[in-house]
Amino acid sequence: MLGGMVWTDDGGWRRYLPSPWGNDDTQKILDILEKHKVKATFFMTGGWVESYPEDVKRIYAAGHDLGNHSENHKNMSQLSEEEKTSELMSVHEKVKKLTGVDMELFRPPYGDYDNAVIKNATKNGYYPIQWSVDSLDWKDYGVDSIIDTVCNHKALDKGAIILCHNGAKYTAQALDTLLATLKGQGYELVPISQLIYKENYHMDPSGKQISDEDAV
Questions:
Q1: I need a surface site. Which of 13, 43, 105, 197 has the fewest CB within 10 A?
Q2: Residue 140 and residue 158: Cα distance in Å, rounded?
Q3: How many CB atoms lie within 10 A of CB 176?
């Protein structure tokens, strides 16, 4: 069964806790992903890109997806059309300058989106992404909690998208066991660019993509 793993690098914006996401665990996370031959998707804010440009390059060099998490981590649904575009394209240009990559995956901050956000992202060449399995690593409940939350999640199924955060207190410590457990459950973890349909699909009521071919 295919599933995707996404990482968020909020670069100074942490919704629930006072300390910002940093880069202390980035190399450890990359090493563990490499050990398990897993490619993931890293969603980055403009602040994180500016603070850790060499990490952006390392993530890309390791073969992972680079994704857009907005410039300033604002609630996108509350912004004007022009502001939405600026939030997307400012970080887009920063990453392109560093890596040559035109990013095409966008995860709205806080999971906040509406039809206008979706239409704006699409107009700017992006596929909007939402997670289906939140590891809750940002709550700092501990290693066992992260593993249990993900591996026993009711939404863990074919096509699930697992959300983790770079810089959360216990995530890097949990990752090795988490990946091994998911593989043991029969999952193959792939980057979002390989997981999503880009054409000939529709959405079910939960927001999950369904191939039109499967619906025939």
A1: 197
A2: 27
A3: 16
Closest CA to 3 of 189, 200, 134: 189
4-13, 143-152, 190-199: which has the highest mean pLDDT? 143-152
Q: Where are the domains of the chain?
A: 2-215
Q: Is the pTM of this model over 0.70?
A: yes
User: Cβ neighbours of residue 55 under 8 Å, at least 6 residues apart?
Assistant: 9, 23, 26
Nearest to 210 by CA among 192, 196, 189: 196
Tell me the chain's radius of gyration from C-alpha atoms.
16
Which one-letter amino acid corresponds to residue 186?
A: G
> What's the number of CA atoms in the CB half-sphere (13 Å) around residue 214?
8
Indicate the class that CATH gives domain 2-215: alpha beta
Cα dist. 175→61, 81, 84, 101, 114 in Å?
Answer: 20, 38, 33, 27, 32
pLDDT tens digits along 152-195:
999 999 889 999 998 888 999 999 999 999 999 999 999 999 99
The pair of structure tokens assigned to 85 is 């575009």
